[in-house]
Amino acid sequence: MAARTSANFSSCFTFLKEALVLPTQNPKLFTPVFLLIALPSFLVLSTNVLFVQPLSMDMAELAIKLQTTDPSSAEYRMILEELKHDVTQLILVVVAVELVALVLGFVNQCVGFFAASSTYSGDRYSLPELLRKAMKGNLKGPLITIAMVTVLRVTYMALLGVLIYSVMQVQRHYLIKVLSVQVLLFVLCFLAFLYFNVVGMVSVAVSVGDTERRGIRALRQAWRLMTRVRRKEGLVLVVAICLLSIAVSPVNLVAAAYTKNMVLGLCLLVVYALLSGAEQLFYFAAATVYYCQAMDSKGEAMDYAYAKIPTGEANC
């Protein structure tokens, strides 16, 4: 009994082990995919260090000067124009970088999931071959699913923000009673958000592996797999992704806070971008392996159930 329990426990982590070694089965594909995935993180972080932070500091200094300057003076108008210029420049930089990162994020998810799916199924493509195959095949489905999951994720985050705001607006005499309920509600909603993120990843894997499922149908299939077919493995996947994200994030905090040496700070950002790329690549591989194994177990369960249906031939 104990041996069986131990075997069942270890089987819950088997797909994670397979996801870890999956990129090693096709290095010529996963090496450029890994670098491509790491690029948006480095782009956003380096832009923040090189442009956003200096502009923000200049704007803060100008705002302080503006408060101590006579509004009727020429210096006031000059500072105001300089402040407007910095604000415009900051907005343009942030919008441009975010748009580029968003597009690259869509591309990276498609490439990452196609790479994981093709490699797990036994194909050994190079990156150009994979891109040609994706362009000729089922590219529309994953893009629709990624867009839908992104919209739902942003909507969910907005609702969490509203919930936080409502907690902050609680009156003092209602604080103890209402705050405890709202904090509990926020924690539950946040945990559901973490779970939904993983369901969204699996839904993209579904749309890559199944050309007939995209958007809501892919999300529904992912939810069914994680809540009915392989619940234990689904929970392990959620916990693994959350813990890995927590483990990598301190490097970003250290890099962002280290301003004494720009070169060292950028080196730390490179390290974080590479770790972030490896982290996301593992997400894609883990979600893909989970989906494939869940579908295999679902098929085996259906075959077993079909075999148990009495046909009456044995009684003849």
From TrEMBL:
Key words of the record: Membrane, Transmembrane, Transmembrane helix
Record has Transmembrane as a keyword: yes
Residue spans crossing the bilayer: 29-52, 90-116, 143-168, 174-196, 234-257, 263-292
Keyword Nucleotide-binding appears in the UniProt entry: no
Domain of life: Eukaryota
Name of the featured protein: Uncharacterized protein
Source species: Oryza sativa subsp. indica (Rice)
